[in-house]
Structure formats: structure tokens, C-alpha cells
Design a protein that fits this description.
heterodimer, A: 273 residues, mainly alpha, MetI-like fold, two-stranded antiparallel ribbon, B: 262 residues, globular
């Protein structure tokens, strides 16, 4: 009886996911190994020897890496500051960090089009200050993509780190300081190592998020493709579904590999374990 | 010591300026009276807010977005609440695997999911685009519903349920009269979080467009590629207001810790 009840509770959800997610994903992956009825790796061989695709892949990885590092450098100190605040101020700052996260990525990327455009806010201010004569070409470059992605994902790493730092016992820092450590040393030797798990989770979210983001590169990247916009282009504009499926599979493999490796790293570095 | 804190405070201020500045700029430009987006705006006018109502595609896609996010939400609740209850209440074989399956939609890149759904749900299963869009958004919302509902069930004392059962109430009756009222705020928060996630979605919706069918974010994306007037800025301001209200309600219901815990 108990088992039958369990099935009834779980089965509808599992069936729905199987039908609308698992089967489509599995068959998309499987389809990449078959071409005109026979088993083949040709799709992948063709890809991994295509300099254009390699360039897109490298640009994507580079943009994601820079975004992740920038998010850590900007997010870590800010998160530390927020975690030390009193409850009222903390809630306000957390809310201000979460708010953009809940906003549409179209809106957030669009705001950077206003700022970075040829006649945008940044260029017109720099010109009126006399710092530059000709407008800088930032919009529709990898730099614009990175700025948009940092803006998109910075809140994620801040709130993840605040969640971890809040739980660090303040007595540990006092203890370190009373034993003669300077404030900075205490920060470096106590706060930083204890924040590593949060840092890794946050970095996974930012790196994988940047690797697979579509809206921001589509709006800010111009003709510069990354792997997600390349997938869309192949599927919709070029109508080459075999290639699109190969790209989709490569994206799944990279995503899962990053999550797996970073989780391994997290268990290895976890000071408690 | 004080000196260093001031430096850190200033740094944090700059970080928040970077995060929120662009949203403020977009808000100002929405009141531009001219036809080209400018910052600062050259005057004050509501004309681009009125323009939202005049561009028919914004209204139709808004309705589609609302329908898909609300109907998909109901569907995800119907599938997700029983699953979250089973996963929190009982110990059984294969529980970890099932947990993983229910969370998996957030692990698959959205753009990959959208493409796979187009390929199979629309083409192979031959479902209408509208139905495919609804199915896709339901899959998208399910993990959020399960996560939030399961975490409020984790705070529920199942001894209360046992008591009701031992007093002769039926399982179903107990669930609706004892369990559900106790996790009400969790469920409302789950609805709102899933709604925001679905309403803003681009990755799946971008593949599910067809004659007369598209969602608001996709329509905005297309509009931005061809126009540079302040209409999108005006829509953005409206979206910001709604988002702020929903976030406030979520904070009241379950607190902001939902977002900081991972």
C-alpha cells in the first residue's frame, strides 16, 4: 500500500520530465552519432578540426573564465562587507543584490547597449571630458559580452558567499587576532579558507552560466559568436540540425565536466573534510 | 582598522553602483520625449509608455507570457507538490536518483533544452507550438517548485500529520487540512519564484516561436535588434516595479535566505 501511494505521488512528475526533457535530450545526443543510418563520429571529427568552431569554443571559454575571475574579485570583498553588517542593513543590501538577479536578462543586457553604444553614455561622457576623440568600439565585442555577463552573474556569487560567510564563527577571527594575527592575516588565514566551498559553488554557477548564456552574447556580442549563439544560428538560421545537435552535446559534456571537476575540487579543499 | 573598513565600504558601494546603475539609467531614458534613447533624457514624457499599448505585438506576447507562466505554474504545482511531499516524507530506495532527476532541468543548459524540445516535442511529437511552450515552461518551473516546497516541508513536524492520521483522518484529508495549510507560505513563494523564472525565460522560448506565438522577452529581443527607441526602457521599468513587488512578497514569506543557501 505504502509503495503504491509513493508511485502515485512521484510518477506524474517523472513521466512528464521523461517525456518532455529526458527523451528529447537523450535522443538529441544519440542522434549525433548517426548519419544517414550508420554509426559515426564524423560529426565530432568535422567539428574539432574546424578552426572556426575551435575559435568560437576558445572565445567562449575565455569570456567565461574572465567573467568568473572578475566576479570573484569584485564579489568576494563585497560579500565579506555585507556578511559583517547588522541584520537590517544586511537584508537591504542582499535585497539590492537579489533584485537584478530576478530581472529579465533582456532588460539587463539592453541597459548595457545604452551605456556602451557608439553614441552611448560611456562614449559621450568620455568625449565631453576630452579623454578620447573618437568613440570607443566596445559594443558588439567580447569585452561588451564580458561586461554584460559580469553584471548578470556578480549578484549570484555575492549572495552565495554571504550565505557561507555568515556561518563563519566570529570568535574564530577574534581568536586569531588575540593570538597576534593582524586583521588582514586573520582575514587571509581564517575567512578565505573557510569561504572556499562557497567560492567554488559560486564559481561553478558563474562559469557554467557564462558558458551557456544566450541573451547577453546575442545582444551585446554582435557578429562575435559564442557556443550558445552558434547553436541557435545552426538550428534556426542555417537549419542544420545535425550540427546543432553536435554543439548541444558538446555543451552538455562541458557543463557536466565543469560541475564534476569543481565538485571534486570542493571535496578536496573542504577544510572540514 | 576603521580605515580599512571605510575602504571596503567604498568598494562595496562601487560594486552596487555597477549592479544597479544600469537599471537606473534605463529608468531615466524611458521618459525621453524624443524618438532616440538618450541619457540624460531631454525632457519628460509618458509617450513610450503609451506606445507599449499601441504596439500590438507587445500586448499579444504579454498575454502569451502570462498564460504560459500561470498555466505552467499550475501544472508544475500539480506535479511538484506530490513529488516534493514524497521526497521529504518517506525513505525509499532510489530516492537520491529521483531527487537528481527532479533537479536536473537546472543542470542542462537552457539553450540545449530549448533546442532538444523544438526537435522532439514540436517536430517529432508534433505538438502545437503553444503546447510545446507550455510543456517547456512547466519543465523549467518544476525544480524551483520542488526545491522551495521541499524546504518548507523540511521545517514541518510530521508528528502533527501522524496525530491527525491516528485520530482517524484519511491520508488525503490530512494532507489538505493539516500539511498544506502549514506550508502555505512556502507554496506561495514557490509560485512566485517559478513565475519570475518562467516569465523572464529566453532560452527555451526562443525556439518555441511560430505564427502568432511568441513570449514577451522574445518580442523584446526582436524589437531591440531593429529599433532603438525608448519603448523597451518603458517596459523595463514596468517589469522592475512588478519584480520588486514580487521580491518583497517572497522576502515576507520565506525570507531572503532562500537565495543565499545553495
Amino acid at each position: 500500500m505504502k509503495n503504491k501511494g509513493l508511485y502515485l505521488l512521484l510518477l506524474p512528475g517523472v513521466l512528464f520530465l521523461t517525456l518532455f526533457m529526458i527523451i528529447p535530450i537523450v535522443l538529441t545526443i544519440a542522434s549525433t552519432f548517426f548519419h544517414e543510418g550508420s554509426f559515426t563520429f564524423a560529426g565530432y571529427r568535422q567539428f574539432l578540426t574546424d578552426p572556426y568552431f575551435i575559435k568560437i569554443l576558445l572565445t567562449t571559454l575565455q569570456v567565461s573564465l574572465v567573467t568568473t575571475i572578475a566576479c570573484i574579485l569584485l564579489g568576494f570583498p563585497a560579500a565579506y562587507y555585507i556578511s559583517k553588517l547588522g541584520p537590517r542593513k544586511k537584508v537591504i543590501l542582499l535585497a539590492l543584490a537579489i533584485f537584478p538577479l530576478l530581472m529579465s536578462s533582456v532588460v539587463r543586457s539592453f541597459s548595457w547597449m545604452i551605456i556602451l553604444g557608439k553614441k552611448g553614455l560611456l562614449n559621450s561622457s568620455l568625449i565631453s571630458m576630452g579623454l578620447i576623440e573618437k568613440p570607443l568600439e566596445i559594443l558588439y565585442t567580447p569585452t561588451a559580452m564580458m561586461i554584460g555577463l559580469i553584471h548578470l552573474f556578480l549578484p549570484l556569487i555575492i549572495i552565495t558567499l554571504v550565505g557561507v560567510m555568515e556561518n563563519i564563527d566570529p570568535d574564530l577571527i577574534k581568536a586569531a587576532e588575540s593570538l597576534g594575527a593582524s586583521r588582514f592575516t586573520a582575514f587571509r588565514k581564517v575567512i578565505v579558507p573557510l569561504s572556499v566551498p562557497g567560492l567554488i559553488v559560486g564559481s561553478i554557477l558563474v562559469f557554467v552560466g557564462s558558458l551557456t548564456a544566450y541573451t547577453t552574447p546575442a545582444l551585446l556580442g554582435g557578429k562575435q559568436r559564442v557556443i550558445s549563439t552558434f547553436l541557435y544560428q545552426n538550428a534556426i538560421t542555417l537549419n542544420d540540425w545535425h550540427r546543432a545537435s553536435v554543439i548541444a552535446t558538446i555543451m552538455i559534456v562541458i557543463t557536466l565536466a565543469v560541475i564534476f571537476l569543481m565538485n571534486k575540487l570542493a571535496t578536496k579543499l573542504n577544510p572540514k573534510g | 582598522m576603521q580605515e580599512k573598513n571605510r575602504g571596503l565600504a567604498l568598494f562595496t558601494l562601487l560594486v552596487f553602483l555597477f549592479l544597479l546603475g544600469p537599471l537606473l539609467i534605463i529608468s531615466f531614458t524611458s521618459f525621453e520625449p524624443g524618438t532616440v534613447l538618450k541619457f540624460p533624457p531631454e525632457g519628460f514624457s509618458w509617450r513610450w509608455y503609451e506606445n507599449i499599448l499601441e504596439v500590438e505585438m507587445f500586448m499579444t506576447t504579454f498575454k502569451t507570457s502570462m498564460f504560459v507562466s500561470l498555466a505552467g505554474n499550475l501544472l508544475a504545482l500539480a506535479l511538484g507538490i506530490p513529488a516534493a511531499y514524497a521526497l521529504s516524507r518517506f525513505q525509499f530506495k532510489g530516492k537520491a536518483a529521483l531527487n537528481a532527476i527532479f533537479i536536473s532541468p537546472v543542470l542542462i543548459p537552457g539553450i540545449v533544452m530549448g533546442f532538444a524540445m523544438l526537435k522532439y516535442v514540436i517536430i517529432v511529437y508534433d505538438l502545437p507550438i503553444y503546447a510545446g511552450l507550455l510543456a517547456g515552461h512547466t519543465v523549467l518551473m518544476l525544480p524551483f517548485i520542488i526545491r522551495v516546497v521541499a524546504s518548507s516541508l523540511a521545517n514541518f513536524d510530521f508528528a502533527v500529520e501522524e496525530a491527525a492520521l491516528s485520530l482517524g483522518a484519511g491520508r488525503l484529508e490530512t494532507f489538505f487540512k493539516v500539511v498544506l495549510p502549514n506550508i502555505r507560505s512556502g507554496i506561495i513563494a514557490a509560485i512566485l519564484i517559478a513565475f519570475l523564472e518562467s516569465f523572464n525565460n529566453v532560452d527555451i522560448s526562443v525556439f518555441m516561436t511560430g505564427p502568432g506565438v511568441s513570449t514577451l522577452p522574445i518580442q523584446m529581443l526582436t524589437y531591440v535588434e531593429n529599433n532603438f527607441d525608448p519603448t523597451i526602457a518603458a517596459i523595463s521599468v514596468l517589469l522592475m516595479i512588478v519584480t520588486a513587488i514580487l521580491m518583497f512578497i517572497i522576502e515576507r514569506l520565506i525570507g531572503l535566505s532562500y537565495f543565499t543557501k545553495r
